[in-house]
Write a structure and sequence with these properties.
The complex is a heterodimer. By secondary structure, chain A is mostly helical. Chain A contains 11 helices and no strands. Chain A is elongated and about 65 Å long. The termini of chain B are far apart. Chain B is an all-alpha fold. Classes of the chains: A mainly alpha, B mainly alpha. Chains A and B meet through helix 4, helix 7, helix 8 and helix 9 of A and helix 3, helix 4, helix 7, helix 8 and helix 9 of B.
Chain lengths: ~250, ~210
């Protein structure tokens, strides 16, 4: 533990291009880019599959099978296959981002699909009965109801991406993984362990940030977060009736 | 294919190491998760604590956990025990919730009937609740098995040999074939783990088979 503290409290490790803040920024940038790309592909697709029921079999199985593919192997295959066709930093940044995005798609897809699929049929029927068009049912009813599962898909994709971005340092990508990989190369255990602590902390903070966003994005009608105050309301109005009469 | 044929014995020995590193944690994880899951179900206060706690463990990226293990248990960085323990932590993280939910899905009427028949709490747990929770627990175990096989390969980066070593060796030599062989072997191994768990589940839940046949 002392090694870690010594490394972390050394001010020279906190500035410059291989300093901790820059590495964290790199890690977050790569992860965010990959997640946004994956979400743009997977959320609409998942909503479509959940709404229409088409391709259900495919989505469920892709999500299951993707878990079996070792990310390290996929990463190296992509870098060896795409790398020679690209020049400069792009030779490893682009293949790494592709792999990160590819790994993020299945959990997001599964979450979006399952979210829409599990919407209460009564809510869907009520929306149709109110005269909503198909698109309105999807956007105004199914999407908000599916948010908890969409978020859980996004969160597991995020953990996957943050972890894989770490091991992508073996293929030359920047980010906190550099501390682990470079430390390993020179047998600097202090740096490796400090990097590992930082990566673990980053993963936790990102997940907590998602949890916080989820808290405010998901309708309180679904979470029951404000159920307590709502329950007390009828009682309050009942009390107020005699007052207005008198 | 020529590389694969020439190196078949080496690939097989790496496969066995992989089976050990991914399989032992499954058994250990299950043994730890069952009492924890039971506690989470028995004492409602503990449920959110245990679920959130194990959930936090799951957020730790695998490479970081492999490197941090020696700090906690005082082993050498290359010791396979680090990987076994780290994978056990992930397995427990996945299974505690499954066990708790599986036990929770046992109908109250069944538990009451068992109590009325004179089953004590321990005997009821082992002879009624756990067997009925097996299908749910086995679903969780399948997820854990498949992701364990995939995550273990990351340990090649810190130099613990298993199928992932084919990735690092191939990448270092700019040679695609070992990497492809490794990926295929990993996926096949995950499939085998999955099938073994399905077969085991069928074996110990005979009532599910008769219900399906009827």
């Amino acid at each position: 533990m002392n090694l870690v503290l010594t490394w972390l409290t050394d001010p020279t490790h906190w500035s410059g291009d291989d300093g901790v803040p820059h590495r964290i920024l790199e890690h977050l940038t790569y992860s965010a880019v990959a997640l946004v790309i994956a979400a743009i592909i997977a959320i609409p697709l998942g909503l479509y599959v959940g709404h229409t029921g088409r391709g259900k079999f495919l989505v469920v199985n892709i999500a299951g099978a993707a878990r079996a593919i070792p990310s390290l192997g996929l990463l190296f295959i992509m870098v060896l296959a795409l790398g020679p066709r690209l020049s400069g930093d792009a030779a490893f940044v682009v293949p790494c981002l592709v792999v990160l995005a590819v790994l993020a798609v299945p959990p997001i897809l599964a979450g979006a699909y399952a979210g829409v699929e599990e919407v209460d049929a009564g809510a869907r029927d009520a929306a149709k009965g109110m005269g909503m068009r198909d698109v309105q049912v999807l956007v105004k009813v199914e999407l908000p109801c599916a948010l908890p599962l969409i978020f859980s898909g996004l969160r597991s994709a995020t953990l996957q991406v943050v972890a894989t971005a770490t091991i992508a340092a073996t293929a030359g990508l920047g980010g906190l993984g550099r501390l682990l990989i470079d430390g390993l190369a020179v047998r600097d255990f202090g740096q490796m362990a400090a990097g590992a602590v930082l990566v673990a902390a980053l993963a936790l903070v990102v997940d907590l940030a998602f949890a916080l966003v989820q808290r405010y994005a998901v309708s309180s009608g679904l979470t029951g977060r404000r159920a307590a105050s709502r329950r007390s309301r009828p009682k309050a109005s009942a009390d107020s009736i005699p007052i207005t009469i008198s | 294919m020529s590389w694969f044929i020439d190196h078949l014995p080496a690939v097989l020995s790496l496969t066995w190491r992989h089976v050990y590193l991914a399989g032992v944690p499954l058994v250990l994880g299950l043994l730890v998760a069952v009492p924890l899951g039971w506690l989470a179900r028995r004492y409602r206060v503990l449920y959110p604590l245990l679920i959130a706690g194990t959930g936090l463990l799951y957020t730790i990226p695998s490479l970081a956990l492999f490197i941090l293990m020696p700090l906690f248990i005082g082993t050498k960085i290359l010791d396979p025990v680090n990987v076994v323990l780290a994978m056990t932590i992930y397995t427990v993280a996945l299974l505690v919730r499954t066990v708790a939910d599986g036990l929770g899905a046992v109908p109250d009427s069944v538990n009451q009937a068992a109590t009325a028949m004179g089953f004590g709490r321990v005997r009821r747990l082992f002879m009624v609740e756990l067997p009925l929770a097996v299908p749910v627990i086995s679903a969780g175990l399948r997820v854990a098995a498949v992701s364990n096989v995939s995550i273990v390969s990351v340990a090649a980066i810190i130099g613990v040999p298993q199928l992932g070593s084919l990735f690092t060796d191939g990448f270092r030599r700019n040679f695609m074939e070992p990497i492809l062989v490794g990926v295929v072997a990993c996926v096949l191994l995950a499939l085998v783990f999955d099938l073994v768990i399905i077969a085991g589940t069928r074996l110990i839940t005979p009532w599910q088979r008769t219900r399906r046949a009827a």
